[in-house]
Specification:
By secondary structure, the chain is mainly beta. Helix content is 4%, strand content 36%. Strands 1, 2, 3, 4, 5, 6 and 7 form a seven-stranded antiparallel beta sheet that branches.
Length: 166
C-alpha cells in the first residue's frame, strides 16, 4: 500500500489552546511506521530547559512564537520566530524562554529502539538494583532453578539439564 500525505495538525491551533503557563510538549508526531519524530514544545516566560546533550541524533529546532536564547558553551544564540537552528549530535545546549515565552518545533530521526547487547571487552558494568533483568530467564535451569553463567549456556552446570530449548 502506498503512503498518502496528509495534514496532521495546525500548530497555531495547538498553541492557541495552550494556556499562558503551559509547558512541555503540546503536540507530538505519533504516526505508526514513521522514520521521524517531531514535538511542539512550549516554555512559559523565563522557563528553561537545562543543559543537556543528545549523543545519538541531530535535532532541527524551528521557532514558531516568542523568543529566547539557546546557550551552547560560551555562545548564546538568539531565538525568534522563523529561526531554524541545527543542534548536531554530541552538542551541549540549554534553552531559555524570553519574556513572552517560547514555542518551537523539534524534528529529528526517530530514536532507535532499545537493544540488548553485551558490554565491550574490558568495560566496567555497573550493577543494577532489583535483581536480574527479565532477559536472563532463558538462563534459569528449569530443573534446579540455578542461574547459568556465560553468554549462551546450553546446559546447567549444576544438574546438566538443557536450558531454554538450546
Amino acid at each position: 500500500m502506498n503512503a498518502v500525505p496528509r495534514n496532521l495538525a495546525v500548530l497555531a491551533d495547538a498553541l492557541a489552546q495552550a494556556g499562558p503557563d503551559s509547558r512541555g510538549a503540546l503536540w507530538q508526531l505519533a504516526e505508526p511506521g514513521r522514520e521521524l519524530d517531531a514535538n511542539l514544545v512550549r516554555l512559559p516566560p523565563g522557563a528553561e530547559v537545562g543543559e543537556h546533550q543528545e549523543d545519538t541524533l541531530d535535532v532541527l529546532l524551528v521557532v514558531l512564537a516568542g523568543s529566547g536564547v539557546l546557550v551552547t558553551g560560551e555562545t548564546a544564540l538568539p531565538l525568534a520566530p522563523t529561526t531554524v537552528t541545527w543542534l548536531p549530535r554530541t552538542s551541549r545546549r540549554s534553552v531559555a524562554a524570553g519574556p513572552e515565552g517560547l514555542a518551537y518545533l523539534t524534528v529529528h530521526r526517530r530514536r532507535p529502539g532499545l537493544t540488548i547487547a553485551s558490554a565491550p571487552p574490558g568495560a566496567r558494568v555497573r550493577e543494577a538494583e532489583g535483581g536480574e533483568a527479565p532477559c536472563a530467564l532463558d538462563r534459569v535451569c528449569p530443573a534446579c532453578g540455578r542461574l547459568a553463567e556465560g553468554r549462551a549456556p546450553k546446559f546447567c552446570a549444576e544438574c546438566g539439564e538443557r536450558l531454554g530449548g538450546r
